[in-house]
Design a protein that fits this description.
This protein has 138 residues and is mainly alpha-helical. The chain folds into two domains: 64 residues, Arc Repressor Mutant, subunit A (Orthogonal Bundle), CATH 1.10.10; 49 residues. Helix content is 49%, strand content 6%. It has five helices and two strands; from the N terminus they run αααββαα. Strands 1-2 form a two-stranded antiparallel ribbon. The radius of gyration is 18 Å and the shape is globular. The protein starts with 12 loop residues before the first helix and ends in an 18-residue tail after the last helix.
């Protein structure tokens, strides 16, 4: 697994690491028994502080997703997501095609993000959910 840190995102680096592991678990790219990169490797490749990586790994451990094995590394303990990996791969391919079309139509990343968030913040009938509905809007 290769971590990527976006220093302009406003999201702390340790949370970016946690998010990337969780996403890899949901997408089936990581599963129980897989080993996460060593702290030293993450520091060398991403440029983040070792304490940042340790904080992320601790967060994942507290949530029951990984376990640290003394002298062996950090390993995935549990998976996320219950969808068949083939279904996820097919949906990802369709989404990638949609993103390509959106870029060809002139949308930038923020435009695409806004569209996706608006769809995610809608109910099953397509009605926008507002903060007044007692739901946190993205």
């Amino acid at each position: 697994m290769e971590f990527r840190i976006d220093r302009s995102s406003g999201l702390p680096a340790y949370l970016q690491l946690v998010r990337q592991v969780r996403e890899a678990l949901r997408l089936g790219w990581l599963g129980p028994g897989d080993r996460l990169p060593t702290v030293r490797d993450v520091v060398a490749r991403s440029g983040v502080n070792a304490n940042t990586v340790l904080k992320a790994y601790r967060e994942l451990e507290l949530s029951g997703l990984v376990e640290a094995r003394q002298g062996s590394g950090t390993f995935i303990k549990a998976g996320l997501g219950s969808t068949d990996p083939e279904v996820m791969a097919a949906l990802r391919a369709r989404l990638a095609e949609w993103v390509r079309e959106a870029r060809e139509a002139g949308l930038d990343i923020e435009d695409i993000d806004a569209l996706v968030r608006s769809v995610l913040a809608a109910d099953e009938d397509g009605n926008q959910i507002t903060a007044g509905d007692g739901v946190a809007v993205l």
